Amino acid sequence: MTQQRVLIIDDEPDIRELLEITLLRMGLDTATAGNVSEALAHLKQAQFDLCLTDMKLPDGSGIDIVRFIQKELPHLPVAVITAFGSMDTAIEALKAGAFDFVSKPVNLPKLRELIQTALKLSAQQTSPEPVLPFTTEPESSSDQSNILGRSEAMQQLKATIAKLARSQAPVYIHGESGSGKELVAHQIHLQSPRKDAPFIPVNCGAIPENLVESEFFGHKKGSFTGAVADKIGLFQAAHQGTLFLDEVADLPLTMQVKLLRAIQERAIKSVGGLAEVPVDVRILSATHKSLEHEVAAGRFRQDLYYRLNVIKLKVPPLRERGDDILLLADYFLRKIAQRWTMPPIKLAASARKALQSYDFPGNVRELENILERACTLCDNNTIEPEDLQLPQALVPPKAATHSVLTSNPSRLSSHEALYEESQTATEEGHLENPDLDPSLQWNPGGSEADEKAIILKALDQTRWNRTKAAELLGMSFRQLRYRIQKYDLDAR
């Protein structure tokens, strides 16, 4: 195997010597330069796997090196060495295309981690693994490595993801609710040199305020009531990988201060702990809110905003993706049919046209929910416009009676939509049965355990005649079949 080579650029001989010794002990070959001119000469004459450059040089700056490499050698990772506390300079370097940065005085363990990560990226570029074209569907519903879409907006997004995966810069992913921000973050991780390490997503708005610090940084046994054992936090769980902060705008201000310090110092201190623990984590963040507006309103710290928003990536809403709507619809229908062990379900031509005419305020998540609901309502395995129940005057009057379902469909899960449909149909008398057993009365808002118990009781009373059980419960046959499959009751 060819020895990997690193170019070291610094005008201070002592720093160059320290870096050179460190890299030689790591089994790497090195070359050195004391200014921009010497560095450019090396880069033009020889091949390198990594470049380390100081920011202040006699005839220019490290930014000049970064920009040259971005233009002429885009697959060469370059890391910059900045003066202590020069966070603005580091961010400028990251925006220019630097892979990462390290502050003076140089922390050698952190430097070694940075070098190892950068060399993994360099090796990927030299012998790249096949990159998925993103125009075919994932092999399984658990495969998150693909982003479906052939539209121009999605092709641009995929190209940007490939570029961002080569950097360690924090990325702020902005997009509407349901547009796929976590999927984009996961794809950045999967194409990066951190792909073999954990990808840890966390919904910042879902953590109780009094537990946020413990969740992020961990805690020591006895540090507070209920801390019965030591626990590592999300930062340590994501060590050498990627931490995705979804809905980061929902973090309380007190936690924002601590998060900023953890990101800048690359170290965390657990609740009840005494010493800081170094962590190597790439931060990706997202929110459907405008962080700029949150900063202006005083709900989000400006310094943290600048630290997270080194690179901003916009995820296009579904309405701007053209024929991707139908591509995604066909994909979801195949998955639903497979999951429910049903024959293939198709969209009538008029239903396809209705989908393309709809704005999808809830984006991809809403599309999936609409199709799951439509699959329970359609006849002959063909979805008509009225089965979609789109909240616009684009569908026949038959669907109007169900408008209660879709007043905000982006917030309805598939099973919540089914509860609403069942409740609405019963209220309208479509499925009323005056002889219903009171103990089998369906409660759309009940717990999962209650649902299972009622369904099993109805099935037992009808000797597993599903048609009769559905009548007893006051629901459609499709709704019952959906729940039997959902709760895996066939296996009982």
Describe the structure in your own words.
With 492 residues, the chain is α/β, with parallel strands linked by helices. It folds into 4 domains: 5-126, Response regulator (Rossmann fold); 152-316, 3-Layer(aba) Sandwich (Rossmann fold); 322-430, Orthogonal Bundle (Helicase, Ruva Protein, domain 3); 433-492, Arc Repressor Mutant, subunit A. The protein has 20 helices and 16 strands. The strands form 5 sheets. Strands 2-1-3-6-7 form a 5-stranded parallel β-sheet, sandwiched between helices. Strand 6 (78-82), helix 4 and strand 7 (100-103) form a beta-alpha-beta unit. Helix 18 packs across helix 19. It is elongated. The N and C termini lie far apart (57 Å).
Mean pLDDT: 82
Annotated CATH topology of the largest domain: Rossmann fold
Percent range for β-strand residues: 5-15%
The name of the CATH architecture of the largest domain is 3-Layer(aba) Sandwich
- In total, the number of strands is 16
Read across the widest sheet, the strand sequence of neighbours is 2-1-3-6-7
Query: Could you list the spans in which at least 5 consecutive residues all have pLDDT below 50?
Result: 127-145, 393-436
Superfamily at the CATH H level of the largest domain? Answer: P-loop containing nucleotide triphosphate hydrolases
Q: Summarize the main sheet.
A: 5 strands, parallel
Helix tally equals 20
Q: In whole angstroms, how far apart are the ends? A: 57 Å
What's the level 1 CATH class of the largest domain? Answer: Alpha Beta
Class by alpha and beta content: alpha/beta
Shape descriptor: elongated
The percent range for helix content is 40-55%
